[in-house]
Each structure stands twice: as C-alpha cells, then as structure tokens.
Design a protein that fits this description.
Blueprint: E1 4-12, E2 16-21, E3 24-29, H1 32-38, E4 46-54, E5 63-67, H2 70-79, H3 87-93, H4 98-106, H5 110-113, H6 121-131, H7 136-165, H8 171-184, H9 191-200
Antiparallel strand pairs: 1-2, 1-4, 2-3, 4-5
Helix pairs in contact: 4-7, 7-8
Length: 201
C-alpha cells in the first residue's frame, strides 16, 4: 500500500497531478482546496504528498488521492466513513479548507455544507449526523497549522525583501539562504533572529 510519495511534479490537470517518483509516474487525484496551492507550483518542482490508497474487488483500478498533511488525510477518511460518500465523491466535495468544513459540521451549519461540490441537503444531514462531535480537532488544529504557515511565509518575504533590495543579493541566492536557515531553525519567528543566523553562517 502506498501512503507517502515524494517526487517531481510532471503534469497538472484540473483534478489530478502526475508525479514522477523513481522513474515511475503516479496519477494522483487532488482535492480542489489543495489543487489551488499546487497550481502555484511549476512543473519540475518537488512535491510531497500523503496518499490515501484504495483498491477493491468492485473497483479493481487503484485510486490514489493526495494530501499535504496527515491531518488532511485523516479528515478525508472520516468524511468517506459517511454512508453514500465514497472517495471519488469526497475528493470533489472538499473544495474549501478542512477547518471550515469541520467547523460547519460541529456547528451543524447545513447551508455551509451544501456549498461543497456534489453535496445536497440529504448528504449534508448525513455528514452532520455521522461526524458531529468528532470534528473539533480538525477545526482547531488545521486553523493553527495554517496560521503558522502564513506567519513563516511573511517572515521569509520580509527578510528576502531586505536581502534583495537593500543588500544586493540575487533572488535565488536569497531564497536558498533563508530556506536553509529556516529548515535548521524552524523555531525562528522574528526577522532579526533570521538575519543573525544567516550572517553567522
């Protein structure tokens, strides 16, 4: 069973990608909310995905569905546990961030759930009945994770602006310096400390 893939993005389509891993190309379905992020990537870039894999007697052709985090994959597995919502329906339905869907389930917000692609009133009621009381961790965890990611992007942008515009570094050089330090010191949250580590190195 395939649970994780790291490779080169070869092709992007509306609902799936082709990922090259050790000279094998994997076609992977991607939820709409994540496809928006992947569309910002260029072909040839590295892509890492946590994989939901399914192959059954009724459906012998294997299905691979990709997620950015383990939390997203677990959320998806909860959604497909609802009667009448299989993997192919679920991957199309998740067109907004999972914390928003989780919050809608916990607050029994039927109208919000009906905005999901292919989810009508009957399916929305089933989702609430099956999952209400189980979604709080996804509503909070993913929201916190998103905020941390956005904070790090802002930190990187601030420092790169100074490195390029004030100190004369080229974009690729500045990007490499910042990425190396952030990988080594993920706890850094202030531009001053990031500069200090860059110039120590």
């Amino acid at each position: 069973m395939i649970g994780y893939l790291k490779g080169t993005l070869l092709k992007k389509e509306e609902e799936k990608v082709l990922l090259l891993v050790n000279n094998i190309g994997y076609e992977i379905l991607i939820p709409a909310f994540l496809m928006q992020k992947i569309n910002a990537k260029k072909t040839g870039e590295e892509l890492i995905l946590y994989i939901y894999y399914q192959q059954t007697e009724r459906q012998p052709k294997s299905i691979l569905i990709g997620f950015e985090t383990q939390e997203e994959k677990k959320f998806f597995q909860n959604i497909i546990s609802v009667a009448g919502i299989g993997p192919l329906k679920a991957v199309k339905a998740i067109n907004i961030p999972i914390n928003e869907i989780a919050a809608a389930i916990e607050t029994k917000n039927l109208e919000k759930l009906k905005t999901l692609k292919g989810i009508g009133e009957s399916a929305a009621k089933k989702i609430i009945a099956s999952l209400s009381g189980k979604m709080e961790k996804f509503a909070t965890h993913h929201s916190i994770e998103y905020k941390i990611e956005e904070t790090k992007k802002e930190l990187k942008n601030q420092v790169m602006q100074v490195l390029i515009n004030q100190l004369g570094h080229k974009f690729a050089e500045a990007d490499k310096m910042v990425e190396e330090i952030l990988k080594q010191n993920p706890e850094i949250t202030e531009p001053e400390k990031l500069f200090e580590q860059i110039y120590k190195k």
